[in-house]
Amino acid sequence: MIDRPQPCAEHARLPVPAGLGRGFVLASVFVCAACGLVYELELVAVASVLVGDSVTQASVVLSVMVFAMGIGSLLAKRLRCHAAAGFGYVEALLALVGGGSAMALYASFAWLGGARVVLVLISFTIGVLIGAEMPLLMTLIQRIRQQDAGGALADLFAADYVGALVGGLTFPFLLLPLAGELTGGLLTGVVNALAGGIVVQWLFRHDLEGRARWRLLAANVCVLLLLIAGSAFVGPFERAARHAVYGGDVRVAVHTAHQELVLTGGADRHRWPEDGELRLFQDGRPVLRGRQAHAVRRALVRPAMTGGPHQRVLIVGGGDGLALREVLRHRDVRKVTVVERDPGLVRLARRDPGLRALNSGALDDPRVRVVHDDPFDWLRDRGREAAVPFDVMVVALPAPGGGTGPKLYSEEFYAVAARALADEGRVALRAGEPGSHAREFWTVHATLRAAGLRPCVSAGGRGFLVARHARPAPPDCGLLADGSAPPRGDPRLPPSTLMHPRYRG
Question: Which residues of this UniProt protein bind S-methyl-5'-thioadenosine (predicted)?
Answer without folding.
Answer: 259, 340, 406
